[in-house]
Write a structure and sequence with these properties.
It is a single chain. Helix content is 21%, strand content 25%. By secondary structure, the chain is an alpha+beta fold. It has a six-stranded mixed beta barrel. The radius of gyration is 17 Å and the shape is globular.
């Protein structure tokens, strides 16, 4: 039975439908990647994208004056954006194919566990990294290291985020935050989202090290899918499909 489940999971991964990167999103990517994040655009700096790296990553804001909207993204030194480490926190009672087993820092719950239960009407007890595409965004710690709370700029828990990885785009939700088990890191997503982006070589101890991933967060209550998301989905694609229309509306803001 276990081998059958694992095979089914791998087949499902191969059949994931990636969204083509819309022209406006690709243009946004091409503009922010070589740009600098300074002045009022820089919300908070002093973050790392690897344990042994340097504290040159920042949370940045891009305003769109015509609409009065803005978006939040991560940017590093020079033309670097962010990498994609693997998060396996949350409900792992359904391990699917076991790739989270190699994680050395798994936590038993995500930051928004209570909110997940409310949004799903308690159909699930927490996000599942094997199923739900979620992004680790924001930094919380008590040891004096760099912190940033996306809620301070209007980002809501479980809001939909866009992730551009190579020639693919996926949507996920803001599902977790970085804690104080190491330097203040940025650039992390659930195993299911990383697998959709970069394939089954991703596991709990092996992510995507190149800093070319664009994570985009959108402020406002209208970015939160609430009960319209298929929180009880049994695979990545089912959940992804349930937030795609909202994601499409959000990325239409980018210019």
């Amino acid at each position: 039975m276990k081998s059958t489940i694992a095979l089914a999971a791998l087949v499902g991964v191969q059949n994931i439908s990636a969204l083509s990167v819309p022209t406006n999103v690709r243009n946004f990517y091409n503009r922010v990647k070589p740009s600098t994040c300074t002045g009022t655009a820089k919300l908070k700096g002093g973050f790392y994208d690897q344990d042994d790296g340097s504290a040159q990553w920042s949370y940045c804001r891009k305003a769109f004056p015509d609409s009065g909207k803005h978006a939040i993204y991560l940017h590093g030194p020079s033309t670097k954006l962010a990498n994609m480490d693997i998060d396996c926190d949350g409900d792992l009672s359904n391990p699917v194919d076991g790739r989270c087993g190699s994680s050395q820092d798994t936590q038993g719950q995500t930051r928004w566990k209570t909110e997940v239960q409310a949004a799903s009407n308690k159909k699930i007890k927490d996000l599942n990294a094997n199923i739900h595409p979620y992004v680790v965004f924001g930094n919380e710690r008590d040891d004096g290291g760099a912190t940033f709370d996306p809620r301070s700029v209007g980002i809501k828990p479980l809001s939909v985020m866009a992730v551009v990885c190579g020639d693919k785009m996926f949507y996920g939700v803001w599902g977790d935050t970085n804690g104080d088990d190491g330097p203040p890191l940025v650039g992390e997503a659930s195993l299911s989202l990383a697998t959709a982006c970069f394939g089954t070589s991703m596991n709990g101890n092996n992510g995507h090290d190149t800093s070319d991933v664009l994570y985009i967060a959108f402020p406002g209550d209208d970015a939160v899918p609430g009960s319209s998301a298929n929180w009880g989905a049994s695979n990545f694609q089912q959940f992804e499909d349930s937030i795609t229309n909202l994601g499409n509306n959000l990325v239409a803001r980018l210019s």
